[in-house]
Amino acid sequence: MKSVTCLLMGSAAGLMAVSAAQAADLPAAAPVEYVKVCDIYGTGFWNVPGTDTCMKIGAFARAIVGVGNGSAFLVEGTGPDAGAGRFTRTDTSFFTFEGAGVMTFDVRTQTEYGTLRSYMNIGATQSASGNWPNQPVVPGAITAGEFGLGTDAPGNGIFNNRAFIQFAGFTIGRMRSFFDITTLGAYSYTASRLTADSAPAGIFGIGYSTQLGGGVSLNFSAEDSGSVLGGRGRFVVDMSQATFGSTNFAVGQAHDNSGNYYLDPIMALRTDQSWGYAQIGGAFHNDSGGYYNNAINSTNPLLANTIVQGHPGDVWGYAGAAGFLLTNFLGNNGDTFGMQANWGKGAGGYVTRGVATSFIRNGSNFAAGSLQDGLFADGTKISLTTAWAAAAEYEHYWTPRLRTAVQGGFVAVNYTQEEKNYACAGAPGYGTGFLPNAPNTPVLGLPNNSLGSGTASKTNQPTNFVNGWSPNSHCNPDSSWWQIGTRTAWSPHPDIDIGVDVMWTAVNTANKGSTVNVAANSGAVPPGLYTFANEGIWSATFRVQRNFIP
After folding, report:
1. Does residue 378 contact residue 422 with C-beta atoms inside 8 Å?
2. Cβ atoms of 381 and 315 closer than 8 Å
3. Beta pairing partners, 408
4. Is the distance from CB of 488 to CB of 367 less than 8 angstroms?
5. d(Cα 35, Cα 366) in Å, to the nearest integer?
6. pTM higher than 0.90
7. Tens-digit pLDDT profile for residues 206-245
8. Angle 447-256-143 (CA atoms, 0-180°, nearest 5)?
9. Which of 28-32, 446-450, 514-518 has the lowest average pLDDT?
10. CA 479/CA 414 separation, integer angstroms
11. 35-548 CATH, one of 2.40.160.10, 2.30.40.10, 2.10.70.10, 3.90.1150.10
12. Which of 40, 89, 271, 455 could bridge to 440 as Cys pair (CB 3.0-4.6 Å)?
């Protein structure tokens, strides 16, 4: 029995020795590397395994319902369909909704030149358009949405309003403009038409920031001058081939711009302190126009808008802005108060997001305003318009989970006398201007030597106001509009916001008297006499948003 036991034990020892020798020949398993928290840049960052790069992935999902809102949650009368005046049961939907989801990616690495950062987001939205009842959905169409991408919003879309790289003081890509100061979007769910904030849609630019010490920085950038997709836009009107503003309840203003040859230069001086921040800045904006419309001193309409006609000289507008934001206002934790003022000449997109046409109709009364960068006619230079805006915002935390914001502001638009002569041609007190098929008609507002004789061929050109004005009416394209609203939000959990926003929007017109509408694009609005008057409208928005590592 002892011999059997010794044999078994010897065999087992031999097998263990062989197994150990074979195991020694196998490659060693790599140790498991777990994801580690990266606490250099704040909450939510983690180290990408095997690198010295930190990343944060965030997201939000939300649902919005609006009343009195049009497409893109712009107040009815201030959006893409503003000039149509279609406040009827068949042409307007006062019930608007949107569902959206967004993911954000923030990637940072320390280098010998400082932090290398890239940031981008991507989202999808589905929303109802302001003229939703009678407009077919276009599959795959890019929605205007709150983010300003695309034109009117009949359906669904994917958007990307941030995609930039920051390195060694430079920022390049789709970003927020260096010209911007405060943002009313943080205090309201309804799209603001006040300050020229590029935050909702972003803008392409190349910028550089240098620190001067003590929290003061000097910032330079060159940014997109022509895009209306969150950019500043270029709004130059050739009055020899277009009616103006609200004529005949027109949908909008036809623009005649040159190609986009330049980026707008911007400079801003900013200070960031424990109490908040403040900034002053300025910008130049290219306002070059297209070719002249008609054959000057010629009767050949085929030459209209061709290179042989020439064009107005290149011209630059300019704008300035100043503002501040105070944090923990009056010693209340979380409270903020800010103000901003913008002014521009030929640079409406640096003054307000409400460039182009605003229109509100109430029965037979209507108010209309049109902000354009500049106007010109055949043989003339471009005349630049002036606009200014002021806005303020305040948010108070009643409790850490309940807060109320109040925001409002005013925008004013002023045209020169020469521009009024263009826009009001045909109205009482003004000449006939651009009458169709009327060669050698005197052009009001032009110097006698502008075309050699003070006259121009006006073959096949439209009259600016083709419909009649009532006696004693007065044409004046100057206008203004203002908004005031309040938003209350409740966060039962830090990751969810539930809130409601109420806003009043008013459009003031300097036109007096009445005019006749017979336009075919006025929908169910009947022909007849309509009276100029200051008008306003209420709107409300309800929103639920779930945030994940914002």
Report:
1. no
2. yes
3. 392, 484
4. no
5. 62
6. no
7. 999 999 999 999 999 999 987 644 557 788 888 877 666 5
8. 150
9. 446-450
10. 7
11. 2.40.160.10
12. 455
